[in-house]
Every structure is written in C-alpha cells, then in structure tokens.
Amino acid sequence: MSEKKMSSSRKHQLKSLMLSIAKVLLEEEDKEREQERSRYMAENCPPVSMPRTMQELQELCKEINKNIDRIDEERYDLEMKVTKTNKEIEDLKIKVQDLMGKFKKPVLRKVRMSADAMLKALLGSKHTVNMDLRANLKQVKKEVKEEDKQLRDVGDWRKNVEDKSDRKKMFDS
C-alpha cells in the first residue's frame, strides 16, 4: 500500500486546528481548577472573625491546631501515595524496556563465591555475617593420665637423651 504524502499547507492547517483545540481545553481546565480551589477554600477555610474574649481566642487556637493536624495527616498520606506511585512507574518503565528488547542484556558469567561473599552481596555491606566457625572454637588440651605420664618419664629414653644433649650443649658454650 502506498501512503499519500500530506501537503505542507494541509499540515499547517491541521497543526493550527489542534493547537486551537488544545488552547480551549487548557483554558477550560484552568477555569475548573480555579473553581475547585475556591470551593475547597470556602469549605476548609471559612472566613475568620476576630475573637473578643480570651476563651474565644483559645477556641480558635484549638480549632486551628486540629486543622493543622488533619492537614498534616492528609499531606503525609498523599506523600506516601506519590512515592508508591513513583516506584510503580519506575518498575513499569523497567518492564517496558525489557519488553521492547532494544538493549541486549550482558551475558552472565559463572562466578564462584564463598558463602560470606554471597551473603554480603545479598544483604549489603551493612549486614555482614561471619561464617568463620573455627574462630569460635576453643582449644582443648589433651588430658594426660598420671600412669601414662610416669611410664613416659621412665620409659621414653629418647626424651632423656635429648635432655642430656641439651644440657651438654649448655655446658660447652
């Protein structure tokens, strides 16, 4: 199928028509926004009459503080909604990029990692888990029985010879 090219005058005419429609729509939006703002202000911020007594002034302060608390709660809720929506938008952008497939994903290499390195990569550097179990072990000295000790002292002639040679070296020097 062959597509017909549009003449420049036709393009200009359509562009100006679209811009005029957009201008009308924007003006209507501005009017609606202004009406909504004035309605909201009339509803939530009635005109203030200056109090004449101390009690009326205290009542006015209490009312203003209640309104401030309510508005703070609404602001916090809206802020949380905005952050949640922004996060969803970012996730959707990532999904769109994945679906478009324009960018090739790098080939993953096989990497040997120790358990410590894997936990560090998963949990981040703040949460390090020490998997060195040998460091927690205590050294245990082998118990020597009294009988074996006496037999070893008497019967181990090599040890006696080594001791005597050490003594001989001491006297020689």
Automatic annotation (TrEMBL):
Region Disordered: start-end pairs: 28-49, 142-173
Keywords, sorted A to Z: Acetylation, Actin-binding, Coiled coil, Muscle protein
GO biological process: cardiac muscle contraction; skeletal muscle contraction
GO terms under cellular component: troponin complex
Entry coiled-coil feature ranges: 54-102
Origin: domain of life: Eukaryota
One Gene Ontology term of the molecular function aspect: actin binding
Subunit structure: Binds to actin and tropomyosin.
Classification via PANTHER family: TROPONIN I (PTHR13738), TROPONIN I, FAST SKELETAL MUSCLE (PTHR13738:SF15)
Function: Troponin I is the inhibitory subunit of troponin, the thin filament regulatory complex which confers calcium-sensitivity to striated muscle actomyosin ATPase activity.
Family membership: Belongs to the troponin I family.
Name used for this protein in its record: Troponin I, fast skeletal muscle
